[in-house]
């Protein structure tokens, strides 16, 4: 008997005699009891705000990213303990890979994003600066800082590990503590993973807490700095959104809801082609993975009218090959639904869908199971066919959250897009086509209704990640029925737990707040050439002003012949003058960059290890023969990469003899951390 516990105020709290009995979906027998204890939600909220939040906000983004990386590694080392519980949920090992390895991988990805795309400081700089005054003494910048409340995560039953980790990773990276509330039916698997997080000792006290059982009055205690992130049904989301405190305090509410996702077979795809076969594989996989209990599963299969019979026959034939039973048994490819109640709900929805669609696969309860008795929550993969989708309502509004999908015909691509959009907003829609123009037309007609468009074809199928796989790099969420929310998406997902603020002031003020030098801010003169100084010695704002160099006509001609760039603006005086952008022959932009490097580079061996990139190059004014250029090289920001070296970003500005700016860019160098 499993007894998952809550984790409140640093203490584990077990189930009581009021606990809910959890019936295993494979055997139909009690496998766990959970909840029943009275938790002090006021104390939990305070514990997170007064201990977890401050401890996280004292760290930089990179420090928090290192915790996520170490945590992902720790969980990976113990994941077989989670797989040992996975089959109890009704999921196969393959299903568990999506949940367990997928969740751990998501945490690792956010660790990488934090190190690579966020600063080694407490303030996230959102975009470039804004000039707010003619003379440059008053500027603006958007920043993001961690919210100072608590993130409450309310998760669904279908992904007990991934569902927790995909929310927890961006929350902790943002610097916000979390209270996790898993669905009771599979909470024992969530609790096992959560317990590992606590046992790792990697997260500070108060940063994470767990509620097994009901949430009591927790939502009523939330305020303006708190966040609720929800995954589940539209009905539950509506109920939660209506909590008076959430509305009164304008608490952020992110909802990722189950939706009527669609897949479309392009009009160019014919039966027997590689693209057609890929379409059939994807559709069948989405019906059977997790026994169809995925928020991204395909619920509507939209195909050309003349392909209906071929698609239906191919799908029915493929679904016949599915082996159903105890997910721990050899050879089983589809397990049980999460509970008997879930099975009943799916059957009831199939009955309503059957008013508009006929079943092509037989009685869904007629199941021959492997290694399981008659009391499990098993259903056969079910394919329905709706021949008149324009007149139908239920197939576009009701979701059977199980191994069920409905095939329907379309007349043309415009009709296919309209049918896909009738779901009222979805997490994902997919299209299989080899015609880029078909993909473009479908995207323009449908993108507004779907959070993600997955477009696959012959060229991409070998590496495509799958219709139903939300990747941490890409946003996950959708409009309308899908909840109107958004999560994941790399750094975008982190910003959901932060406050974007516009700051205005002098360049010195903005630089002090952001930790990044701004044009117009104070310059620092170092004791040596900056290329002879180590990462830990260089100061933000440290600046080198170079001598000037004249650009001659011979320089331009030599560079042109040496590189092969004999564009007329550099070689033909009359043709160059005819160009409204040039006064005559002008220097190559890359000649100016080369001369700039020659002016600011210190050639002796030293701490600078490599030039690793150049960003944001722009040219403001042409340089003519006889003009002179000089360079200002300023340390803009510093990012520690390893124990041995860090990345220094330099603002490089080129000006002419009249102090007019002619070019600007950002130079990236890797610099040794300290002298050896």
Brief write-up:
By secondary structure, this protein is α/β, with parallel strands linked by helices. 32% of the residues lie in helices and 24% in strands. The strands form eight sheets. The chain has a seven-stranded mixed beta sheet with strand order 15-17-18-13-12-19-20, with helices on both faces.
Overview of the structural elements:
By secondary structure, the protein is of the alpha/beta class. The chain is 32% helix and 24% strand. The protein contains 20 helices and 29 strands. A seven-stranded mixed beta sheet has the order 15-17-18-13-12-19-20, sandwiched between helices. Strands 24, 25, 26, 27, 28 and 29 form a six-stranded antiparallel beta sheet that branches. Strand 28 and strand 29 form a beta hairpin. Helix 2 (61-77) packs antiparallel against helix 4 (93-117) and helix 2 packs antiparallel against helix 5. The longest helix is centred in the N-terminal third of the chain and has 25 residues, at 93-117. The two termini are 59 Å apart. The model has no long low-confidence stretch (mean pLDDT 93).
């Amino acid at each position: 008997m499993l007894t998952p516990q809550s984790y409140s105020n640093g203490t584990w709290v077990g189930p009581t005699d009021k606990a809910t009995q959890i019936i295993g979906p494979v055997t139909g027998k009690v496998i766990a009891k959970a909840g029943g204890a009275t938790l002090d939600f006021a104390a939990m909220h305070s514990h997170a705000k007064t201990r977890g939040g401050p401890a996280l906000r004292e760290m930089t983004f990179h420090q928090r990213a290192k915790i996520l990386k170490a945590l992902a590694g720790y969980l990976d080392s113990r994941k077989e303990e989670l797989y040992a519980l996975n089959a109890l949920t009704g999921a196969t090992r393959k299903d568990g890979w999506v949940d367990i390895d997928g969740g751990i991988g998501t945490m690792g990805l956010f660790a990488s994003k934090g190190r690579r795309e966020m600063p080694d400081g407490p303030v996230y700089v959102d975009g470039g600066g804004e000039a707010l005054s003619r003379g440059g003494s008053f500027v603006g910048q958007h920043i993001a800082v961690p919210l100072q409340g608590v993130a409450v995560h309310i998760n669904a039953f279908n992904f007990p590990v991934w569902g927790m980790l995909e929310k927890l990773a961006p929350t902790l990276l943002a610097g916000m503590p979390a209270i996790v509330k898993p669905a009771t039916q599979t909470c024992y698997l969530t609790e096992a993973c959560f317990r590992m997080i606590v046992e790792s000792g990697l997260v500070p006290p108060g940063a994470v807490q767990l509620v097994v059982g009901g949430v009591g009055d927790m939502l009523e205690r939330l305020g303006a700095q708190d966040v609720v992130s929800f995954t589940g049904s539209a009905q539950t989301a509506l109920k939660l959104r209506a909590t008076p405190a959430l509305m009164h305090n304008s608490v952020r509410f992110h909802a990722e809801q189950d939706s009527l996702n669609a897949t479309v077979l392009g009009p160019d795809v014919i039966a027997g082609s590689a693209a057609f076969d890929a379409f059939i594989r994807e559709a069948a996989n989405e019906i059977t993975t997790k026994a169809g209990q995925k928020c991204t599963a395909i619920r509507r299969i939209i195909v050309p009218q003349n392909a209906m019979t071929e698609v239906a026959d191919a799908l029915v034939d493929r679904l016949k090959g599915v082996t159903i039973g105890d997910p721990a048994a050899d050879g089983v490819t589809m397990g049980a639904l999460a509970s008997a109640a879930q099975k009943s709900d799916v059957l009831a929805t199939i009955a309503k869908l059957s008013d508009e669609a006929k079943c092509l696969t037989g009685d869904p309860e007629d199941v021959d199971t492997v290694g399981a008795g008659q009391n499990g929550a098993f259903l056969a993969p079910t394919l329905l066919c709706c021949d008149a989708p324009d007149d139908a309502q239920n197939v576009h509004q009701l979701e059977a959250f199980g191994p069920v999908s409905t095939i329907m015909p379309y007349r043309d691509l415009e009709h296919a897009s309209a049918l896909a959009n009738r779901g009222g907003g979805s997490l994902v829609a997919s299209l299989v086509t080899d015609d880029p123009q078909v993909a473009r037309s479908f995207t323009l007609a449908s993108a507004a209704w779907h959070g993600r468009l997955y477009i696959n074809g012959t060229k991409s199928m070998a590496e495509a990640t799958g219709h139903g796989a939300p990747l941490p790099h890409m946003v996950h969420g959708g409009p309308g029925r899908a909840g109107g929310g958004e999560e994941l998406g790399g750094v975008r997902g982190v910003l959901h737990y932060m406050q974007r603020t516009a700051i205005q002031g002098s360049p010195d003020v903005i630089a002090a707040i952001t930790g990044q030098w701004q044009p117009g801010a104070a310059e620092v003169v170092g004791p040596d050439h900056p290329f002879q100084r180590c990462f830990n010695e260089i100061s933000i704002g440290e600046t080198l002003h170079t001598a000037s160099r004249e650009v001659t006509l011979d320089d331009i001609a030599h560079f042109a012949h040496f590189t092969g760039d004999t564009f007329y603006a550099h070689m033909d005086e009359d043709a160059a003058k005819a160009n409204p952008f040039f006064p005559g022959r002008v220097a190559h932009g890359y000649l100016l960059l080369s001369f700039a490097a020659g002016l600011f580079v210190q050639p002796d061996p030293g701490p600078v290890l490599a030039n690793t990139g150049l960003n944001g190059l722009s040219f403001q004014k042409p340089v003519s023969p006889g003009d002179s250029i000089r360079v200002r090289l300023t340390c803009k920001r510093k990012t520690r990469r390893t124990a041995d070296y860090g990345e220094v970003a330099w603002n490089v500005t080129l000006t002419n003899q009249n102090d007019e700016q002619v070019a600007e860019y950002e130079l990236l160098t890797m610099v040794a951390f300290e002298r050896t």
